[in-house]
Amino acid sequence: MTYEELVKKVKDIAEEADAGNIQGHVAFQFNIEGEAAGAFYLEVKDGKADVQPYEYHDRDVLITCSAKTLLEIVEGRLDPVLAFTIQKIKVEGDLGKALLLKEVVGQKKAKKKASKKQ
Predict the structure, then answer these.
(1) Which domains are assigned to the chain?
(2) How many CA atoms lie within 13 A of 50 on its CB side?
(3) What separation in angstroms does the CA of 30 have from each of 45, 53, 75, 104, 112?
(4) How would you classify the pairing of strands 90-93 and 38-45?
């Protein structure tokens, strides 16, 4: 997987996420190591998630991990708290806001489940 493919995949997932429960603004920067190495950000503002292939200098949270680990998190296959606990990700910055990543992922999963029931 290339850096561009990773950013596009995360962006596609973020566009489907329901971040409506997140009040205010939060910016996550992801520093990817190994395959697909590079930096990009996920910004949540006004209940919408946006991914862009740039560094975010005024970020709230910096997460460093592999592309594989990030995809497992954003696809809901790996809990971000567990990933931190088992040292699959490194987190710098506001840990309270870092926990909001789990809420974005959780909202996405709930949205999918609700649409399957209809």
Answers:
(1) 3-102 (3.30.1050.10)
(2) 12
(3) 17, 10, 15, 15, 25
(4) unpaired
Please give the chain's pLDDT, 118 residues, in tens: 999 999 999 999 888 888 888 888 999 999 999 999 999 999 998 888 899 999 999 999 999 999 999 999 998 899 999 999 999 999 999 998 998 888 777 554 444 444 444 4
Q: For tokens 């996550």, name the residue.
A: 28
Distance CA 112, CA 45 (A): 21
Q: Rounded to two decimals, what is the model's pTM?
A: 0.85
**Two tokens at 75?**
């696809």
